[in-house]
Every structure is written in C-alpha cells, then in structure tokens.
Amino acid sequence: MSHHILVIGGHGKVAQILTPLLLSRSWNVTSMIRTSEQAPAIEKLGQGQPGKLSVLVSSVSDVKSEGDAKKIIDQVKPDWVVWSAGAGGKGGAEATYAIDRDAAIAFTKASIHTQSVKKFLTVSYLASRRGRPSWWTDEDWEAAQKVNNEVLPTYYKAKLAADEVLTVLAKERYDDEEKKSIPSSERFSAISLRPGTLTDGEAGGVQVGKLGVGGKTSRATTAHAIVAALETEGARGWIDVLDGNDDAKQAIQKLTADGVDAADEEDVDLMRENVAKL
After folding, report:
1. Interhelix angle for 153-179 vs 104-112, to 10°?
2. Does the N terminus or the C terminus of the chain have fewer Cβ atoms within 10 A?
3. Which segments of 21-160 are extended strands (E)?
C-alpha cells in the first residue's frame, strides 16, 4: 500500500538519508525544508525513485500553534508524519524551545487531531525521560543526569515535553478508537524513536528494547530504524535504538510482538499533569 509521508526537517542529516529509503518503497514524500536554497539538495534525493517527492518550503520556526501546523497538514494531506527537525543548538535556548518543543508539540497535536493521519513518528533521544528505569545502571543514570542537566538542559526539557505530549495524547486517541471498535491495525500509531549519540557511521544492525545510556547510533542506522518502525504494524510507544547486530526490521517486529515499550515505568499521571500545563 502506498503512503504519503510528511517529513518535517527534510534538510537534516537523518532526513536526507531517510527520504530515499521511503521513496524506494514507492511511498510518496513531502519534504518540508526551511529555505528555497535547500531545495536542490532535496530534489536530488528523488531522482530515479519509484515514489514521488515533493518539496515544501516552510520554516518550522514559523509554526507557533497547533493551528499553524494544521494548515500545513491540511495542505500536504499526509497519512504519516515524521518529525526529524531541530534547532541543532543554533539560536540559543529561545530557538531550541521554539522548534524542539513548541513547533514539535504543535505538529504532534495537529497530527493526532487529524483523523486521516494514521502514524506519527518523532526522532527523540534515549535519555529523554524523567525517572530512572529499573534497567538502567548507576552509570546510566549518572550519564543521563549529566547530559540532561549540565550539557543539554534546554534540549532535554524541550524534547521531554514533546515526548510527553505525544505519549499522552496518542493514548487518548488510541483508546477512543478502541472504544469505537476500530480494528487495531487501523488505530493511530505514535512512535518516539530514541537513538543514542548520533554518528556519521554507515548503516548497520541495531539493538532495540530497554537500553542503557552511553551507546551510539549512526544517523544511517537511525533512518533505517525509522523505516522499520513505520513498516511494522502495531509499532508504537518509545523505541530505544543503538548500533548493534540485529536486523532493524526483524528487531522492531519482535519488539512490537513482545509488547516492549521503553516508556514503561514513567509516571503517566505526572505526564498528564505536565501536558495539561502546556
């Protein structure tokens, strides 16, 4: 079945690897980029591919509300949305909050509240969580605390807020669809894909599941994991992914079949309270 995927942050490194992978499956892609100067690089990604590539020049920094995001979704009409945008440390805390939190949340809400959007995948990072899960060692917790509170505190707060909005609102939609007896295969899927430290290494195998902090994930492997997650029926929740030895598609299919969600042990009630305050 063909799909139309809106890739937000299309000029980013992961997205540029991801886009031809999506197109190669005869899926259509609209790549949302910040400036027209970025367009030629994106257009090359569609050459010789069976899927159709469209380029949308629209800066995520201009998206201030769910309504702004909804206008873009209504224009593009995707059935799947991938968030792979980020301030990348440019523009200070203000830009990080504006893009990694506010625009991300706007697109998350707009996607969840648009019935024709069936999947939303955001690229987060492995340490984006409040609590210490039981599968983390003391070293994992210390490393996460250092990154989240000392190295990248603004980024952490922004990504965590977006992850929590996705988790809470996606569950509300899923539960509502379940009450309406919509088949599970047709219910909304929300995925927070959570790589480790990103590298420019080649694509390879993965390890997925409930993982510790400190590992690395190549951007190419991340892109392949995104495709695998999108292809896997029923995949949802938080998926931690690091470089490893397993085939990405097989690993995520098994993870889904086993019902493994790295969001386990997070305080859902606290999440709801935090989301209500936004």
Report:
1. 0
2. N
3. 28-33, 53-57, 80-83, 119-123
